[in-house]
Structure formats: structure tokens, C-alpha cells
Design a protein that fits this description.
14% strand; single chain; 294 residues; eight-stranded parallel β-sheet; 10 helices; alpha/beta
């Protein structure tokens, strides 16, 4: 990834939370899964965390939520070790079998885990007939288990599938997040039909049994290079619709585009998306504190 010594245009407010980043360590300690699709940093976990903490310090990030990468499959060891290094300032979203024993969920919860990743990525996946039906039993089983213990679901999905599944999402019992702006592309603007349906869904679902939160994460996946500033129109449409149900995250270390993404440039977008300090307080601090139990 591109890193420099600059500081961002604004600094995060006290207790700012990065709600979506990934952690990696030396593959000799944390073996990759057989279907690894990327090339993560192959350094000791302590060194990796030191690099992230440098970025976090300059941006004013004090809390973080580690999201299990596909690189490790359902082996969450690296993520759990990273939480332990953070002295209570981190939470985790794991990937586990929907029928894992209750004792395993209890172990993970005690270690700082607050949810389960439901990964239907890559987020630019083309339309595929039957995809919803194929994964629906797992989703519903995970939702039931999360609701029982106060966890949430972290959903990564292409935008077309989000829209196809809105009726399913309306009935979920647990809180859930949708990553990467729901993958609604910036070039299609704030009036694109899918985004309009999404914002209506977010407004309508504020009082339902399961609350949906939109993650303003990975603008480099849905906006235009070099600095992804056209993401602003989508970010502001979502914030205007449901300011209490939007959160921010970095997606560090940007594996799908690391050679062209700069951490400081990405954090500078926050000032464009949220020029009002009261909105930044909600999105960067209050909403994630409530959702992730800080």
C-alpha cells in the first residue's frame, strides 16, 4: 500500500473507530487457506500492527474492528491474536460454520468477537441466477444464532444481490452491516434506482427487529481514481437518509488495489463526506460504539 508521512486534513474525534480492517501475520504462524485469492503482507503480526498503528495515530483512530479476510478461511487465530494486542480497543468479526458448537461461540465472544461475516464477494460479482437461494439457509441460520447471543452479521455482497434480498433482510432478527457502500457505483450517481431503494430500506428499517448499518468503506472499490472523490455523492446520500445507521472503515490494507491506494488520501475523504463535526461524531464515534459494544 502507499504510505507517507503526511497528516490528514482533519483528525478523527476522540474514540474514532475504524470499523472494517483486516489483519495478517507471517504465514509460518498463520497459514493461508487453500483458496487464497490475494497476496497479503507476510510479516510478523506485531510488525503489521505497528504499521497500522502509525496510520491510525496520524488519523486519530483509537478503536478498530477486525474483519476476517478470506485469506484465512475460517481459521480466525490471527484476528483473535490481534484483538489481544489492542488492550480492549478492538472487536472482531469472524467467519465460522453456521453450526459451530455453542461453546465455540462463547469462546469467541469472550475474546472480543461481536459478529460473523457473511461473504458473498467479490463485491463486483456479476449477476448469477440462484445465488440467493444457494446461500439463504446459511444466512438464516447465522442470523438466528447471532440474535441469540447479541451478535451481528457483516454482509459483503454485490449491489444487485442486496436489492434482490431486501425482503429477506427486512426479516432478519440480528443487527447487520452492508460493506463498501453496498457497492453502489459512484459513477451512477445518487439517483440510481438501486441506491434509492437502499436508502428507502434503511429509513424503513430503523425501528425493525434487526437494524441495518451501511459501511462507508473501500471507496476505491466503487469510485474513480485517483482519489475517489466522486464517492462523496453516495456517502452524503446515505448519511442524509440515516445518519444514525452509517459507520466508517478503512478496509486496510486495501489488498485489491494496494499499489494505488494511500491511507491518508482515503481518510481525507471523511472531511468531504462529513464537513459537519456533529455528523462525524455520529458516524465515527457514536454509531460504532453502540453497534460494536465499546
Amino acid at each position: 500500500m502507499l504510505v507517507d508521512d503526511r497528516v490528514p486534513a482533519i483528525k478523527g474525534l476522540p474514540l474514532t473507530c475504524d470499523t472494517h480492517l483486516h489483519v495478517f501475520g507471517d504465514p509460518a504462524t498463520y497459514p493461508y487457506s487453500a483458496d487464497k485469492r490475494n497476496s497479503p503482507p507476510a510479516v510478523p503480526l506485531a510488525d503489521y500492527m505497528a504499521g497500522y498503528r502509525d496510520v491510525a495515530h496520524r488519523c486519530g483512530i483509537e478503536r478498530m474492528v477486525f474483519t476476517q479476510p478470506s485469506t484465512y478461511g475460517r481459521d480466525n487465530t490471527c484476528l483473535l491474536d490481534a484483538i489481544e494486542l489492542c488492550n480492549g480497543n478492538a472487536r472482531g468479526i469472524v467467519d465460522i460454520d453456521e453450526n459451530a458448537p455453542d461453546a465455540e461461540l462463547a469462546r469467541l465472544k469472550a475474546a472480543g468477537v461481536v459478529g460473523i461475516r457473511f461473504n458473498l464477494g467479490p463485491p463486483n460479482r456479476p449477476r448469477e441466477a440462484g445465488l440467493m437461494e444457494k446461500h439463504l439457509p446459511r444466512l438464516l441460520r447465522l442470523d438466528a444464532r447471532c440474535a441469540e447471543i447479541g451478535w451481528q452479521l457483516d454482509i459483503l455482497s454485490p449491489s444487485w444481490l442486496i436489492i434482490d434480498m431486501l425482503d429477506v433482510y427486512r426479516k432478519l432478527k440480528s443487527n447487520f452491516t452492508l460493506a463498501h457502500f453496498g457497492m453502489f457505483l459512484a459513477r451512477d450517481g445518487a439517483k440510481q434506482p438501486g441506491l434509492l431503494k437502499m436508502t428507502e430500506f434503511l429509513r424503513d428499517g430503523r425501528d425493525g427487529p434487526g437494524h441495518c448499518y451501511m459501511k462507508l468503506t473501500a471507496p476505491y472499490r466503487m469510485a474513480s481514481e485517483p482519489k475517489f472523490e466522486d464517492s462523496t455523492v453516495i456517502a452524503q446520500a446515505l448519511i442524509e437518509a440515516v445518519p444514525d445507521h452509517v459507520i466508517w472503515g478503512s478496509d486496510y490494507p486495501y489488498l485489491s488495489n494496494a499499489h494505488r491506494v494511500n491511507s491518508i488520501d482515503l481518510f481525507d475523504l471523511v472531511a468531504q463526506w462529513m464537513p459537519d463535526a456533529a455528523i462525524r461524531q455520529k458516524v465515527l464515534v457514536d454509531n460504532p460504539a453502540r453497534l460494536f459494544g465499546f
